[in-house]
Amino acid sequence: MKTHTSTAGSGITQINTEQLKEQIIRHLHSTLGTDVNKASPQAWWSATCAAVNEQVFDGLRNTQRTHYEQNTRALHYFSLEYLMGRLFSNNLHNLGLYSQAKQALSELGMNIADLEDQEEDMALGNGGLGRLAACFIDSLATLNYPAIGYGIHYEHGLFRQSFQDGRQIERPDSWREYGNPWEICRPESVQEISVYGYVETVYDLQGKMKKVWHPGRIIKGVPWDIPVVGYNGSSVNVLRLWESRASDFFNWDVFNSGGYIDSARENIEAETISKVLYPNDETDAGKELRLIQQYFFVSCSLKDIIRRYKRSHGDDWSEFAKQVVIQLNDTHPAVAIPELMRILVDRAEMQWDQAWNLCQQVFAYTNHTLLPEALEKWAVRLFEKVLPRHLEIIYEINRRFLVEQVDVLWPGDNDKKRKLSIIEDGHDPMVRMGHLSVVGSFRVNGVAEIHSQLVKSDLFPEMVALWPDKFTNVTNGVTPRRWLKACNPKLAKLLDEKIGTAWPTDLKQLSKFAAFADDAAVQDAFMAIKQQNKAELATVVKKLTNIDIDPHAIFDIQIKRLHEYKRQHLNLLHILALYRRILQEPDYDMTPRVFLFGAKAAPGYKLAKEIIYAINKIADKINHDKRIKNRIKVVFMPNYRVTLAEKMIPAADVSEQISTAGKEASGTGNMKLALNGAITVGTLDGANIEIAEEVGEDNIAIFGLTVDEVKALHANGYNSMDYYYANPEIKAILDWLETDYFTPGKPGELAAIKRSLLEGGDPYLVLADFETYVKAQEKVDQWYRDKACWAKKAMLNTALVGKFTSDRSIEDYVSRVWQLEKCAVKRS
Ligand code: T68
């Protein structure tokens, strides 16, 4: 019998296979109340999680004690979203226990993969922004930085997607219906927060004016801690998520006067706050509940931070900015700025200037989008209703900003004031959360070089004039532990053999793999792994969609939220062009290709849902058309999420990163796919530009308009009709969409796409980029025909994207923004 021993770092207990087996059985008995003979897979999974948690909680205690003793400066990451996915195999890998667990379970007659499938995804996020937060907290723990993630403990994460006759259906996600082994409730750290009500101006005995907020409702925030296990390291940090509850269900006055139902209703309303994640990607609905969600978690978190600070510093605020830095993940938590001001000025009775000075040392803001419709704004009247005191504070922040900063640099310039004001004028005045975030932060960053440049030049040029040093870049990254080691074990093993085992925490080591790019034997090994991954994905596809796909075809993958700017419809037009070419020329020469999509559309985003419908209908037609002899297959994977990404990414040959230049802030799927040896077909947008710099132009298929060309085209008046009439292929394809060819008996069902591209003016320049896109795809097809050529390019992608580890992103944040120090955790 083999007995592996964990190689985990010093904060975590070492354990071997035998001990793990004993722990699992003990938990089956004493935690689950069952035994080996009758335990369900769910019970085995729970028992194994409980066994894993013995090591996790050990590390957690050691980390928390060390941080407390050392009184370290810590990062506080504020994010409305954390897209964690599953934690079982991730925690095992990071503890260095995966092979022991696999062995232990196998000796107990269980298959670890079956147990992994028992876990629901923790999908508390929409897309890239939420997944970035998850990668960042993994890296922070791995790098031994003291950090805590704060967010909302949503009862329902991102909706579950299915298709009915090709249309997206949304169902609620219940990720913790039967409990979740990874979270710990902390009733001892409950907070209470206030909303609604009115503000009273009072004068004390000295005649000093004071503002008193009389809230209309008190809500309780209950914290749930999710341990975040660093890789092979000693740190186990925490993700603290707040659940809302009514502050006192037994409001006896109401209860006794027969108001039981009223009191229960208030209860339900309070609990609604953390009920559900808003499924809006890029656009914000401006809903009252969303603003309350934002304020609820921000206020609970700030109080939590201050409680901890006061434990060692009492009422002395002088060390606060040395101990605390808060990163705002987009503007969603920006109400933290007026909230901290309120706490300091109204509660701690600090002078405004001193309080403001403190705020500006504590907050930093990451921008994730330039799309105008996604720049968060709240109606002043809504703010006034929900957070009356905060609105007053924002007015005062704005007044001082306009007088002390704007008017000093541009005296008497009312245009500048109008443009820079935190309050947007109009018949329905708005609070501009981006402006508030820039004014209240000491640092502002974009998420890829080009995006950070555009944040400066296009979004906040005057703010740059006021504070040139405030703006910086931190290019995104992804954790190679989840996105290579855990999801692609065969490739990970090959890398271990060829370049050693240091790469998971030092991803630049991957460049050593470039030396093997011309080695035929290693090429064969690399391609054999890709082939096996593709065969495994084909099995998943068959199970989920009943579609047969050939693992020898090119696997061409586009996985991301559905949005016009991401241009899934450009991909679709290419598929239609190929299909049409084959129908017109039955011997049309192309490498067989499987086009795989994974995407959720925001439930209220009509055109996005029409695009899903069109892809599904066209897939159905093409997949059943014998004439094309399987040269094209189209698959829309239902319910795309982290767990599905982990199966699709290792199997990708081609990575579709085809946003309109200037629209995708960074992208992170592009990094994961390249890391796993997929070749990017992409525009010069977001991090694609930096990927191209790293892998070299021979190993990526770049096409399309650049940011400058996009701007020039719009400035000179873009007319999509010109492309429709000039390119017969475009015309034929768009006209095709209007017929009933793909929707027998129902002509016009797919016409929405054509309408948006023609009458709608094609805002994302799909038609302008179509021709160069098709050319890039033809180039890729040619590359694939030469197996050695393809293997080399694919291997160089894996070898040369070491820059895009989230460990590097975190080190960039540390040196450019957070100024943290590493803290080695000691065992007790
Ligand atoms: C993404 N943004 C960017 N937003 O689109 C992507 N928005 O380019 C980038 O790589 C990623 O952030 C990480 O920086 C989002 O994912 C949202 O999900 C979102 C959610 C709610 C409201 C607005």
TrEMBL record:
One Pfam family matching this protein: Phosphorylase
Residue numbers carrying N6-(pyridoxal phosphate)lysine: 672
SUPFAM superfamilies (alphabetical): UDP-Glycosyltransferase/glycogen phosphorylase
Catalyzed reaction equations: [(1->4)-alpha-D-glucosyl](n) + phosphate = [(1->4)-alpha-D-glucosyl](n-1) + alpha-D-glucose 1-phosphate
Xref: InterPro entries: Glycg_phsphrylas (IPR011833), Glyco_trans_35 (IPR000811), Pyridoxal_P_attach_site (IPR035090)
Record flagged with keyword Membrane: no
Sorted UniProt keywords: Carbohydrate metabolism, Glycogen metabolism, Glycosyltransferase, Pyridoxal phosphate, Transferase
EC number: 2.4.1.1
An annotated GO cellular component: cytoplasm
Cofactor(s) the record lists: pyridoxal 5'-phosphate
CDD domains attached to this UniProt entry: GT35_Glycogen_Phosphorylase
Keyword Isomerase: no
GO MF annotations, alphabetized: glycogen phosphorylase activity; pyridoxal phosphate binding
Origin superkingdom: Bacteria
Any one GO BP annotation for this protein: glycogen catabolic process
Function of the protein: Allosteric enzyme that catalyzes the rate-limiting step in glycogen catabolism, the phosphorolytic cleavage of glycogen to produce glucose-1-phosphate, and plays a central role in maintaining cellular and organismal glucose homeostasis. Phosphorylase is an important allosteric enzyme in carbohydrate metabolism. Enzymes from different sources differ in their regulatory mechanisms and in their natural substrates. However, all known phosphorylases share catalytic and structural properties.
Family: Belongs to the glycogen phosphorylase family.
Name of the protein described by the UniProt record: Alpha-1,4 glucan phosphorylase
Native organism: Rheinheimera lutimaris
